[in-house]
Design goal:
Two copies of one chain form a homodimer.
Chain A lengths: L17 H8 L3 H9 L6 E3 L2 E3 L2 H15 L4 H10 L7 H45 L2
Antiparallel strand pairs in A: 1-2
Helix pairs in contact in A: 3-4
The structure holds a DNA duplex (30 and 30 nucleotides).
Chain lengths: 136, 136
DNA sequence: GCACTGCTTGACGTTGACGTAAACGTAAAG
DNA sequence: CTTTACGTTTACGTCAACGTCAAGCAGTGC
C-alpha cells in the first residue's frame, strides 16, 4: 500500500530546492536569485537555504511569461504584485483597477503589433509558396 | 495655381532628414544611427548627410514594432532582411520558407502568452469590479 | 574525521541598446 | 563673414539582465 512517504527522494509536490526549480523552468540558479534580488519572488529560508513552494513557482511562471513578452523585470514585479495588493478599501481597489487598465492597454497594443506582424508574415509565406509552385 | 514647388519647407512625401524621421517615430537620432550601425537600415548619403526615403521609414516602422514585441535588434534585422532576400532559386525559396516557419512559431508562442495574460488580467478586473460593487 | 556535493554570498564581467559629450563640417540667415 | 542650426564621427558611459568566478558553509557517506 502506498503510504504518504514524507521523505521521498523526488519531490513532486513538496517544497523544491533552487536547483530543482531552475532545472524545471529552464533557467539558471543565478537568474532565479536575480529575480529574488529584484523582489519578484520571496522564497522561504530554512536556515541559510532557500526553499521554494508552489507560490514561488507560480510567480516564476508569470515572470518568464512576462519576459517572453518583452516586459522589463521591474514592470513584471509591479504586475504580479498587483495580484497580491490590498483591496480592502475603496481607494485601494480604485488604484488597482487603474493599474489594470494601464496594463491592459499595453497588452492590447502588443496584440495589435503581434497580429499585424503575423498577418504580414503569412501573406509573405503565401507568396513564397506560390513562387515555389510556379517553379514546377 | 499650386505649382509643384520642389523647395517646400515641409516634406510630406519627399526625402527626410534624420531629425524628421526621429521626430516622427518618437526616437532619438542616436537610436536611428544605432539601427544603421547594426545594419537594419541603409539611408542614402548626399555627401556626408543621411537622406531617408520611404523605404527607410517602412523599415523603421518594422524595427520599432519588433522592439515593442521584445525582439532583439539583430533578430529584427534577419526578419526584415528576409523580405528582401533573393528568392530566384528553389533552394533560396526553401530557406526563406524555413525561416518564416521559425518566426511564425515564435510569434504564435507570444500570442499564446499574450492571450493568457490578458485573460487572467480581465478575470482579475472582473473580481475587482465585483468587490467594488459590493462596497456599495 | 574528512572528502564530496550542493547551496550561499559577494563581487566583478559581459552583452544589448542606446545616452552623452567632444570636436568638427556646412549651409542658410542676419 | 560670423552666428545659428543641424549634421557628422569617435569614444566613452550607463542600465538592465544576467554570467562567471571565488571562497565559504552544511549536511551526507564512509
Amino acid at each position: 500500500m502506498p503510504s504518504p512517504s514524507p521523505a521521498s527522494t523526488r519531490a513532486a509536490d513538496g517544497p523544491w530546492t533552487i536547483a530543482e526549480v531552475a532545472e524545471e523552468f529552464g533557467v539558471t540558479h543565478r537568474a532565479v536569485r536575480h529575480y529574488e534580488e529584484l523582489g519578484l519572488i520571496h522564497p522561504e529560508r530554512r536556515g541559510t537555504q532557500r526553499v521554494y513552494h508552489r507560490r514561488d513557482r507560480t510567480r516564476l511562471a508569470l515572470i518568464l511569461r512576462g519576459r517572453r513578452l518583452g516586459f522589463p523585470l521591474d514592470e513584471i514585479r509591479t504586475i504580479i504584485d498587483l495580484y497580491d495588493a490590498p483591496r480592502g478599501r475603496r481607494s485601494q481597489l480604485e488604484y488597482v483597477l487603474a493599474q489594470i487598465g494601464e496594463r491592459r492597454d499595453d497588452l492590447e497594443q502588443k496584440r495589435h503589433d503581434l497580429d499585424a506582424t503575423l498577418t504580414e508574415l503569412e501573406d509573405f509565406e503565401s507568396r513564397c509558396r506560390a513562387d515555389l509552385a510556379a517553379l514546377g
